[in-house]
């Protein structure tokens, strides 16, 4: 039986290729996802390992000063140093075991302008700057090195990282405009730097200045540094050097090994982006589910084609177990071959995913792909396991073939009762509905698993019940195409009805992809409509001014705008990052400060409970969703850490969520003053008597000397708020495109195998007068019926899922449910086109069959 199974497999190479292809794409997404996430992790790990020395010396963070209800506390500790003097760096270079010591200047939000004088890296990855030292990284790693040109030697010279240089279009010797603070500095590019040991800035821009120029630009005192690297001599460990350095450090400074600093920085960032792995693996799972439908369908057809052969084995004495094992052996070979090819395609898929995320600011083009052993193990386990499981049901059916059936010309494969499938499908739909309903409820732990499991159960349940549920559709399709195309249409409709299980299984793969695409289309459109509605209800200004880098700008901008003729009022908002402590756990949090009269004026906060006006120092109002999720009520207190100062904010009100206020903890400018956060603004809301081109021009002239500050009207601001939603939806559509591609290939595969199965029947049809054109038309109609069935089921389920999800998100501020019927119509039209195109190759093969050979086929 083993030899017979292998001969049967190798004797039908086209069948082997088609069944193997069913596995390849599902495995490819899993392998591609693992390669990409490993590459991402290696990139950040290599980045942080290459940007620390053997020992890093820095000032100890100052103790937080207690600020309660806006009043500075008593007895705060004496201020500690925030920089290192040059003399200390020189002293560190003389420590036993130290080869050298280098002072470092660090800065953020230094905006680089490209060749077209447009800012780079403004809303995605950060913009970084520092001084060029050429110091080696820890453990002797080269770190950043000059790959083209030379290091900067004067105040007007810079080096850029390699990716930024490519993106900006600048060349060695050219002028580069750089924004430092509020000033535009024209510099000369003299060198390009890159990581010799791997790693990249992952989309961030990096600018290197000559040391004295960097000190002058970024430090309050010229002869100081932010941190220092101490490089170990050969044979001296990082721990030994750290201990030696610690002995000579004055009070207020600390020494840490480079490994500790790199691990802390990398692990924190990787935890922050761990959602990417989960996000991608979800789509890998979707692809595997779709691929499993294709594999089950493929093996069902293959076993049906071998039914007479398997029955003959039974007549010759083979046991049921041997016959079943031969089918599973074929599945094993297919699984191994498909997994191998899937890994290769997965590498290409990782490149595609890397390029896709690069368009959203996560640029890993400078990091080579990482191939960890677990990628190959997981790919083979998943590919073989899914294939063997998918082939299990057809293999089980082979045991029900009676030996006497080998004597018949036609051997009918036993089918599972459609009634049992229908009942099982309804049970799955019911269980999935309950899980979905529970997951969409309030305050449900692990809600995403309930929602995801519920949607999957409903999709599988509908797929199981589809042979019965879709009978009316298939009957209607037969009638319609019979009326439209006559006998050819009737034959095509009858072929779809002949094996409804196969037809609906093929359509179900397309159904899953379109259901999820429809769901995301509704979620995305509803989110944008909710943003538009919130802005229409809450945004009472006519223009906004903000910094493209998210940084602050001088308060004089608001003062000058108030003087512009036609301006009624300007509300200035200020932002700050800090932490809040809830249940003993500090978490990062942004804070907003707004003028007392602006909260219900230009800002337009909608009060839910408490009060939202006339905030006193130490008082705050919270966004509705934020307050509910953290269990904070009016009268409660919010323990926070802002600007190295502890502050306890008293919650006096709750307001409805609004995109006008990006951070949901809102306090008064007086509180920010007590926290010594400066007097710079981040966001201006401008109200004018009558919007006009003249007024807009006058306002734009106020910020003309600040290239990173932009002026937007209401429509432009709304479009900016919708942009992240559009980007996310497009990225999801791109990833779902793979599942849809698998489904399309499933239709091609099913039709091609069906033609092999019906070779004799096609020969007879040709013998009695069916010409090649009519045959191609018949197969095309079969494909169209499958595609339209999948589209109808998928779009219908997707509308239900989308509306259910949006209703569950009403309390999150997404109150508008918008169904993009134009997009759904486009999905249907694409499905129709898919049906036509998927039939091209199978129809061509069928039309080229030799009539006499086809009739004589066993």
UniProtKB/TrEMBL annotation:
What superkingdom does the record give? Bacteria
Matching entries from InterPro entries are given as:
ABC3_permease_C, MacB_PCD, Macrolide_Exporter_MacB
TM regions (residue ranges): 279-304, 325-357, 377-395, 422-441, 447-466, 505-523, 730-756, 777-804, 824-843
Q: Where does this polypeptide localize?
A: Cell membrane
Q: Which residues form the MacB-like periplasmic core domain?
A: 17-247, 503-693
Where it mainly occurs, coarsely classed, is membrane
Q: Name one Pfam family in it.
A: MacB_PCD
Query: How is the protein disposed in the membrane?
Result: Multi-pass membrane protein
The ABC3 transporter permease C-terminal domain extends over 282-403, 734-850
Q: Which keywords does this Swiss-Prot/TrEMBL entry list? A: Cell membrane, Membrane, Transmembrane, Transmembrane helix
| Protein family according to the UniProt entry | Belongs to the ABC-4 integral membrane protein family.
What's this protein's name?
A: Membrane protein
What organism, scientifically named, is this protein from? Answer: Nocardioides daphniae
């Amino acid at each position: 039986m083993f030899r017979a199974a292998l001969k049967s497999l190798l004797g039908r190479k086209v069948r082997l290729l088609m069944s193997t292809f069913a596995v390849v794409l599902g495995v490819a997404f899993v392998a591609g996802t693992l390669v990409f996430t490993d590459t991402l992790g290696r990139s950040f790990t290599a980045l942080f390992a290459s940007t620390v020395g053997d020992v890093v010396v820095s000032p100890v963070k100052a103790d937080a000063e207690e600020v309660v209800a806006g009043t500075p506390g008593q007895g705060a500790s004496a201020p500690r140093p925030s920089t290192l003097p040059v003399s200390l760096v020189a002293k560190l270079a003389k420590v036993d075991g130290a080869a050298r010591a280098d002072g470092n200047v660090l800065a953020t939000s230094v905006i680089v302008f490209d060749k077209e004088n447009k800012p780079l890296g403004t809303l995605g990855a950060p913009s970084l700057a520092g001084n060029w030292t050429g110091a080696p990284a820890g453990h002797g790693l080269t770190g950043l090195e000059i790959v083209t040109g030379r290091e900067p030697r004067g105040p007007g010279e810079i080096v850029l990282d390699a990716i930024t240089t490519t993106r900006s279009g600048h060349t060695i010797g050219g002028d580069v405009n750089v924004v430092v603070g509020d000033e535009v500095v024209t510099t000369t590019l003299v060198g390009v730097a890159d990581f010799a040991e791997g790693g990249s800035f992952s989309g961030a821009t990096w600018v290197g200045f000559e040391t004295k120029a960097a000190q002058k630009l970024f430090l309050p005192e010229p002869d100081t540094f932010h941190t220092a690297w101490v490089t170990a001599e050969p044979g001296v460990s990082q721990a030994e050097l750290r201990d030696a350095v610690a002995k000579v450090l004055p009070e207020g400074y600390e020494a840490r090994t480079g490994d500790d600093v790199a691990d802390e920085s990398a692990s924190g960032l990787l935890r922050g982006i761990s959602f990417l792995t989960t996000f991608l693996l979800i789509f890998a799972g979707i692809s595997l589910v779709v691929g499993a439908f294709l594999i089950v369908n493929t093996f069902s057809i293959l076993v049906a084609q071998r039914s007479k052969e398997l029955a003959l084995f039974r007549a010759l004495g083979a046991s049921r177990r041997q016959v079943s094992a031969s089918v599973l052996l074929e599945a094993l070979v297919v699984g191994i071959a498909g997994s191998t090819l899937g890994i290769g395609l997965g590498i290409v898929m990782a490149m595609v995913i890397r390029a896709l995320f690069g368009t959203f600011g996560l640029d890993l083009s400078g990091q080579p792909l990482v191939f960890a052993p677990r990628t190959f193990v997981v790919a083979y386990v998943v590919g073989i396991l899914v294939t063997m499981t998918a082939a299990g049901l057809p293999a089980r059916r082979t045991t029900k073939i009676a030996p006497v059936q080998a004597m018949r010309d036609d051997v009918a494969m036993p089918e599972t009762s459609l009634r049992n499938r229908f009942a099982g499908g309804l049970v799955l739909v019911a269980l999935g509905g309950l899980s979905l309903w529970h997951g969409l409820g309030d305050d449900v732990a692990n809600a995403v698993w309930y929602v995801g499991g519920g949607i999957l159960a409903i999709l599988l349940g509908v797929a199981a019940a589809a042979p019965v549920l879709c009978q009316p559709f298939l009957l209607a399709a037969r009638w319609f195409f019979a009326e439209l195309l006559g006998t050819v249409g009737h034959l095509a409709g009858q072929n779809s009805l002949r094996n409804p299980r196969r037809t609906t299984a093929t359509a179900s793969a397309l159904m899953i992809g379109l259901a999820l695409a429809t769901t995301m289309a509704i979620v995305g459109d509803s989110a944008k409509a909710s943003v538009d509605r919130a802005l229409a209800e809450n945004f009472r200004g006519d223009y906004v001014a903000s910094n493209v880098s998210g940084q602050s700008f001088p308060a004089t901008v608001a003062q000058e705008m108030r003087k512009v003729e036609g301006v009624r009022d300007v509300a200035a908002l200020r932002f700050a990052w800090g932490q809040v402590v809830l249940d003993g756990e500090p978490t990062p949090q942004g804070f907003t400060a707004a003028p007392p009269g602006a909260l219900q004026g230009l800002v337009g906060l909608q009060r839910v409970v408490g009060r939202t006006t006339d905030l006193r120092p130490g008082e705050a109002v919270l966004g509705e969703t934020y307050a509910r999720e953290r269990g904070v009520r009016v009268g409660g207190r919010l323990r926070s850490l802002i600007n190295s100062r502890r502050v306890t904010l008293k919650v006096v009100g709750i307001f409805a969520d609004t995109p006008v206020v990006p951070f949901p903890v809102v306090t008064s400018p007086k509180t920010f003053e007590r926290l010594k956060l400066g007097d710079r603004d981040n966001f201006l809301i401008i109200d004018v008597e009558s919007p006009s081109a003249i007024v807009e021009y006058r306002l734009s002239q106020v910020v003309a000397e600040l290239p990173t500050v932009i002026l937007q009207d209401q429509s432009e601001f709304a479009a900016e708020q919708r942009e992240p939603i559009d980007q996310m939806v497009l990225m999801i559509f791109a990833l779902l495109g793979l599942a849809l591609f698998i489904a399309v290939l499933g239709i091609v595969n099913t039709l091609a195998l069906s033609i092999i199965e019906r070779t004799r029947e096609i020969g007879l049809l040709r013998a009695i007068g069916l010409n090649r054109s009519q045959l191609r038309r018949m197969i095309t109609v079969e494909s169209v019926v499958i595609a339209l069935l999948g589209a109808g089921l998928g779009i219908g389920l997707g509308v239900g899922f989308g509306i259910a999800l949006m209703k569950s998100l009403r309390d999150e501020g997404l109150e508008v449910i918008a169904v993009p019927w134009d997009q759904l119509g486009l999905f249907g039209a694409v499905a129709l086109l898919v049906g036509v195109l998927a039939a091209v190759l199978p129809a061509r093969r069928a039309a080229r069959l030799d009539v006499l050979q086809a009739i004589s086929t066993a």
